[in-house]
Specification:
The chain is an alpha+beta fold. 49% of the residues lie in helices and 25% in strands. Forms a complex with SecF. Part of the essential Sec protein translocation apparatus which comprises SecA, SecYEG and auxiliary proteins SecDF-YajC and YidC.
Length: 615
């Protein structure tokens, strides 16, 4: 018999719609204003922390709905939005620097729904509000830093192999150049260096007394890839230290990184923490030469002049005792006189280096140098921002005893400066400098306005389609509208289950999907009308209408789906948000417009002796 589904098909459609409705309903419960407490640097969120937070909130008369330890993080649901900031400040002060307190919006759905994975859709920055940064990694500094390391390695190897009198220096644009006093040393040095550094290419100079080396394309690619990936890891650490819930840090293109911080409105603090390429270097003060002679232009080889904030000059050896890569922990505090300081902890290799150096240099001066890169306001030939390297002596202290893995640095002006320096050192130094090439701030009120505007667009688009289908196709139009409602429910359910982020362009994708979903039904219904005009019976018209229209619908939707997948793969930001909802909408509309409406039509008119269809 034509147009009769077996029972299992009706059950399948009903089951899919029921599950879709169940997971979509999680988006109707709304969100609670909350703060989120997470541990770092060996701390743990336990019962004592929960009691301390509870006591702190009660002392500050801040009302809350609940406190719960969820997967190692303490979530405090508040009753009012205006209590978020005071609660964050009070809890941060009470718990100290070993805990991060972030503002959050916690879904208010019941526990049984959470238990089956029923979570609401995440909202993008344009709907929730916050800060968007597009950062660019300075690849020239990556190459320069690698060449600086090569200079030190070349000197050490030549000294070890007793090749004396060689001058190794970095020449901008030419790589590393090694000059020799004797021509017979050139060939021997080339054999030694090429055997040790297989990724480098060596060339003899025209004068026969020098070697020049450059990095291979593969090595350059690896260096750049490593710089971007490590910078992403370090930026994530810094974002966590800022106390931001659900941040986004991801790569864009070859040398750019996108950072989105939902709920953050203080761009100055975010830029100060994220954009700084800050690290420390510990160097020995050159006590063999007079700094006054150096100021007059007679700077000895292997040394350089750096100044502190008071413009006092220091003659420092270029050789680095220890750099920030060995710092495992840093926290701010005060010394016995109440002056700000930063307490440093080193890894085992760094501790051994510091111990060895200080053992042999008791009574001598060691300087702490703070290094960061800042925008110069100029651009290079490629249009990229030029960064300037700033080196500043924080302090120069006499080594009074042998140091180990833990020590402190002083000479900082304010406790806030000590706090920020500790945060940067704790998160790690960026592998290469970065500059902010794009910055956007979206206020929470604008985010709410975007949600309202997007919702209205979907609603009015839906109403317009519903009215048209009812007026033009009568009862069959009602079938199409039912499928349209089911399609919207399934889109929301699938995006919720996948954990996809809904953005304003994503809402535009939903509006487009509404039109595309009903378009399939228009093709089917027009085909049914054509079959009726050709003299077929109502049952034959339904059967051939669905069968003959299927190939056209499938072709159109498959090509659009492929386009959406490509946009998801190579697009970023708004393009990707649009592509996600478009792809999900196409998949769900194919089900509702073909399988769903066919089930209703078969149930209402299929297999019955009728002479006319209400179409």
């Amino acid at each position: 018999m034509l147009n009769r589904y077996p029972l299992w098909k009706y059950l399948m459609v009903s089951l899919v719609l029921a599950i879709g409705a169940l997971y979509a309903v999680a988006n109707l419960y709304g969100e609670d204003f909350a703060i989120q407490v997470s541990a770092q640097r060996g701390a743990e969120v336990n019962e004592q922390v929960l009691l301390k937070v509870k006591q702190t909130l009660e002392n500050k008369d801040i009302a809350y709905k609940s406190l719960a330890n969820e997967e190692g993080r303490l979530l405090v649901r508040l009753t009012k939005e205006e209590d978020q900031r005071p609660a964050q400040d009070a809890v941060s002060e009470a718990l100290g620097s070993k805990f991060v307190v972030a503002l959050n919006l916690a879904s208010a759905q019941p526990e049984w729904l959470k238990g089956i994975g029923g979570n609401p859709m995440k909202l993008g920055l344009d709907l929730r509000g916050g800060v968007h940064f597009l950062m660019e990694v300075d690849m020239k500094s990556v190459v320069a830093k690698a060449e600086e390391g090569m200079v030190s390695d070349f000197r050490a190897l030549l000294r070890e192999e007793k090749v004396y009198g060689a001058s190794v220096r970095q020449v901008p644009g030419q790589g590393v150049v090694v000059r020799f006093r004797k021509a017979e040393d050139v060939e021997r040095a080339e054999d030694l260096l090429s055997a040790q550094f297989r990724d480098l290419t060596f060339f003899e100079g025209n004068d026969g007394m020098s070697l020049r080396t450059t990095m291979s394309e593969q090595m350059l690619k690896e260096q750049r890839e490593y710089a971007v990936q490590q910078n992403i890891v370090i930026l994530r650490n810094r974002v966590n230290a800022l106390g931001v819930a659900e941040p986004l840090v991801q790569r864009q293109g070859a040398d750019r990184i996108v950072v989105e911080l939902p709920g953050v409105q203080d761009t100055a603090q975010a830029k100060d923490i994220l954009g700084k390429t800050a690290t420390l270097e510990f160097r020995k003060v050159d006590d063999r030469h007079d700094v006054r002679d150096a100021l007059e232009g007679r700077v000895p080889a292997g040394s350089q002049i750096l100044k502190d904030r008071s413009d006092r000059p220091y003659l420092l050896e270029k050789r680095i005792i220890l750099d920030g890569a060995h710092i495992t922990d840093a926290n701010s505090g005060s010394d016995e006189y109440g002056r700000p300081q930063v307490n440093i902890s080193l890894d085992s290799a760094g501790g051994n280096k510091m111990s060895k150096f200080t053992k042999d240099n008791v009574g001598k001066l060691m300087a702490t140098v703070f290094i960061e890169y800042q925008p110069s306001g100029r651009v290079d030939a490629d249009g990229k921002q030029i960064l300037v390297k700033n080196e500043e002596v924080i302090n120069a202290a006499t080594i009074q005893t042998r140091l180990g893995r833990n020590f402190r640095i002083t000479g900082l002006d304010t406790p806030q400066e000590a706090h920020n320096l500790a945060l940067l050192l704790r998160a790690g130094a960026l592998i290469a400098p970065i500059s902010i090439v794009e910055e956007r701030t979206i206020g929470p009120s604008l985010g709410k306005q975007n949600i309202d505007s997007g919702t209205q667009a979907i609603m009015w688009g839906f109403i317009a389609v519903v009215v048209f289908m009812l007026a033009y196709y009568r009862k069959f139009g009602l079938v199409a509208n039912t499928a349209l409602v089911a399609n919207l429910v399934l889109i929301v359910a699938v995006m919720s289950v996948l954990g996809a982020t809904l953005t304003l362009p994503g809402m535009a994708g939903i509006v487009l999907t509404v039109g595309m979903a009903v378009d399939a039904n228009v093709l089917i219904f027009e085909r049914i009308r054509e079959e009726l005009k050709e003299g077929r019976s109502p049952q034959q018209a339904i059967h051939y209408g669905y069968d003959n229209a299927f190939s056209t619908i499938a072709d159109a939707n498959i090509t659009t789906f492929i386009t959406a997948l490509i946009l998801m793969a190579i697009g970023t930001g708004p393009v990707q948000g649009f592509a996600v909802t478009l792809a999900v909408g196409i998949a769900t509309s194919m089900f509702t417009a073909i399988v769903g409406t066919r089930a209703i039509v078969n149930l209402a008119w299929g297999g019955k002796r009728i002479t006319k269809l209400p179409i």
